Amino acid sequence: MSLKFDSAKKLRKEKTKHKVESWEEYEQREQEFLKEKLLSKEPTIDAFVRITAGKAKNFKIEIPRNTRPLTDRMKVRIFDVLREDIANKTVLDLYAGAGSFGLEALSRGAKEVTFVDASKHADLVIRENVAHTGFLPQADIIRSKVEEFLFRYSQSDKTFDIIFLDPPYKLYNTKRLLKMQDVIHQSSQFLPGVRNPKSKGFKGALIIKHPRRYPIEKLELSDIVRIETYEFGLNSISFYIVK
């Protein structure tokens, strides 16, 4: 759960509003200032995140610190689109955070989910959430940078029916699109319809959470095509399928 902190520049500006005559007065004002700022910090998200449907419906999910979780409203929309396509499917949850998407998928009937996140704290939280929901036998939890995971398994025959990406927003550089374009492209190579273009079954879907203002339409992706984007305030969810 991310916290709303004032920038260092803003804090310095506020600290210099009042001139002091001595070091004692400075220290007193400093303590009062820090106390005031500490009390004024509030979470940007004041509601818990839960599993919205299925076997583990209403289970409250623990959220790693400094994480923007996938909201209930987003999950309901995503799975309204997927519907029965989630049943018995293999799922890859990249930049998993709390594992909210993967847990929702398991609750709604997914066969198995692979969770990937580089954070030690996120890894522990995912393991705890998976254990508490009873989905441990169906979960593979991997602590790794997403780019390293994608490279490590790129030569394997492993595929995933549904891939979900929720990258940190710092990776969404609007002036340098190649970074996210490459991550999305490498991820799409694990879809069954990309690995085996002649397959007649479910070819796969890739879902991305991204800033609403990010020019997702400018990404050049050779194997998948965007079919829909849903907006949720400052965030958006885009759906891709194999061409």
Summarize the SSE layout with pairings.
Blueprint: H1 8-15, H2 23-40, E1 49-50, E2 60-61, H3 72-82, E3 90-94, H4 100-107, E4 112-117, H5 120-133, E5 139-143, H6 146-152, E6 162-165, H7 178-188, H8 192-195, E7 205-211, E8 224-232, E9 235-242
Parallel strand pairs: 3-4, 3-6, 4-5, 6-7
Antiparallel strand pairs: 1-2, 7-9, 8-9
Explain what the structure shows.
This protein has 243 residues and is α/β, with parallel strands linked by helices. The protein contains eight helices and nine strands. The strands form two sheets. It has a seven-stranded mixed beta sheet, sandwiched between helices. The protein has a two-stranded antiparallel ribbon with strand order 1-2. Strand 3, helix 4 and strand 4 form a beta-alpha-beta unit. The protein starts with 7 loop residues before the first helix and ends with a strand.
Task: Tell me the span between the first and last alpha carbons.
Answer: 36 Å
Residue-averaged pLDDT: 85
Stretches with pLDDT under 50, minimum 5 residues: 1-8, 37-47
For this structure, what is the CATH class of the largest domain? Answer: Alpha Beta
- Looking at the structure, what is the overall shape? globular
Return the CATH topology of the largest domain.
Rossmann fold
Strand content: 15-25%
Strand order of the largest sheet: 5-4-3-6-7-9-8
**Helix tally?**
8
Say which CATH homologous superfamily of the largest domain is assigned.
Vaccinia Virus protein VP39
Oligomer: single chain
- Helix amount, in percent? 25-40%
**Number of strand elements:** 9
Q: What are the secondary-structure elements, in order, as H or E?
A: HHEEHEHEHEHEHHEEE
CATH architecture of the largest domain: 3-Layer(aba) Sandwich
Rg of Cα set? 21 Å
Structural class: alpha/beta
**How many structural domains does the protein architecture include?**
2
